[in-house]
Amino acid sequence: MPKSLFATCALGAFCLAGHALAQSSEAPTWSPKAAAAYLDQRSTWWMNWPTAARDHETFCISCHTAAPYALGRAALRGALAERSASPTEQKLLDNVTKRVRMWKEVEPFYSDQARGLPKTSESRGTESILDALILVWNDAPSGKLSADARLALDNMWALQLKSADDMNGAWAWLQFHNAPWEGDSQYYGTALAAIAIGSAPGDYKSEPAIQPGLKLLREYLVKGMNAQTPADRVVLLWAAAKIPGLLTEAQQKTIIDQTLAKQQADGGFSMSSLVGSWKRRDNTPLDAGSDGYATGLVAFALEQAGWTQSQDGLKRAIDWLGQHQEPSDGRWPASSLNKQRELSSDAGRFMSDAATAYAVLALENAK
Question: How many CB atoms lie within 10 A of CB 162?
Answer without folding.
Answer: 11
